[in-house]
Design a protein that fits this description.
The chain is built from 9 helices and 7 strands, in the order H-H-E-H-E-E-H-E-H-H-E-H-H-E-E-H. With 329 residues, the chain is α+β, with helices and mostly antiparallel strands. The protein has a 5-stranded mixed sheet with strand order 2-4-5-7-6. Strand 6 and strand 7 form a beta hairpin. Helix 1 packs antiparallel against helix 2.
Length: 329
């Protein structure tokens, strides 16, 4: 039989071995816990990164779909533009004949009353030819032309066009600033924004008694431009902040109507492609989406403010060319 002392020694050895094994087991367990925690963190970080990438891809896909749909419609509009250009060309020929006939008739010995009437014909023919030329340029414009231009010049060009299409029931008031406001832009694209905003105002003012649309211009400093803010505008917030930081002065073009206003639930979707509350025959939902693209090209911003039964005010901010203001001062 083994001696009691030997058994005691073996027990002590076993206890030591067990203690060592337990210590190693505890260490292994702690290491495993750390690995699991680290793995969970890595999984969480990876998940967040994938989630962010998914959101980014979703935005890119949405923007690509928007651009694709706009391109399809722009192709249709281009075809319509070519058709309009052909119609304009055909209309100019008879106008030339009418003007020439009036000039020849004026050579005859006619009563003064008749001559007074005939004298108006060449004047109106020239006016119509100029307007047709403008329509042709807007409908079938091949190339963008960004150049220094006074913002009031763009409005004066717009005024002559809007007078032809404005409903007689709407009182249109123009309040143009005497300040010279030179921006870098494409005349016809800026006029396109004005036409889209005016058309929207006409639709809002439809059937309203004492309907009024006031179109004004003003020179604003950066500080004042920052104050005149709303949460509904076409630029991305960070982009607009950068534009404000980069320019000292802005030309403000404002369209203010006394219509019923725009419901807030619609304000969030104003610049979404194909969003419209109008009947199918009245709107495509492209006007403001196209205006947004034009504004972005001009480093400009279109800002909406509207209250129920208080009317809608749309403000366009276009950066003033700094060099021109330097020369002025």
């Amino acid at each position: 039989m083994a001696k009691q002392s030997d058994i005691v020694k073996e027990v002590k050895l076993l206890k030591n071995e067990n203690r060592i094994l337990l210590t190693e087991l505890e260490e292994a367990y702690k290491n495993m816990e750390m690995i699991l925690v680290q793995t969970e963190r890595e999984k969480e970080i990876t998940y967040r990164e994938l989630e962010q990438k998914y959101r980014t891809l979703q935005k890119i896909y949405t923007e690509l779909s928007r651009k694709e749909n706009m391109l399809i419609h722009m192709e249709k509009l281009s075809s319509i533009g070519q058709f309009i250009a052909e119609i304009v060309h055909e209309l100019k020929n008879p106008l030339t004949v009418i003007g020439a006939a009036a000039d020849i008739a004026l050579l005859e010995d006619l009563p003064n009353e008749t001559k007074n009437v005939l004298n108006k014909i060449p004047e109106q023919v020239n006016r119509m030819q100029a307007l047709l030329g403008r329509f042709k340029a807007m409908a079938y414009k091949e190339k963008e032309k960004f150049e220094p231009i006074d913002i009031n010049t763009t409005l004066k060009n717009f005024i002559e066009t809007i007078e032809l299409i404005a409903p007689k029931s709407i009182d249109i008031i123009f309040e143009l600033s005497n300040e010279k406001m030179i921006v870098k832009g494409d005349l016809y694209q800026l006029v396109q924004i004005y036409l889209n905003l005016a058309k929207n105002a006409f639709d809002l003012l439809d059937e309203k008694i004492d309907a009024k649309l006031t179109i004004s211009t003003k020179l604003l400093s950066r500080a004042k431009a920052k104050k005149n803010q709303s949460k509904f505008y076409c630029q991305k917030p960070d982009t607009w902040k950068n534009i404000l930081r980069a320019h000292e002065n802005f030309a403000l073009i404002e369209f203010a109507d006394n219509g019923p206003g725009i419901p807030e639930e619609h304000m969030h979707f104003l610049f979404d492609t194909f969003f419209t509350t109008k009947e199918r025959s009245k709107g495509t939902g492209l006007g403001l989406a196209i205006s947004q693209d034009i504004a972005i090209k001009h480093n400009a911003n279109i800002i909406f403010n509207s209250e129920p039964n208080q009317g809608t005010t749309v403000q366009i901010y276009v950066p003033i060319i700094k060099n021109d203001l330097d020369k002025k001062s």
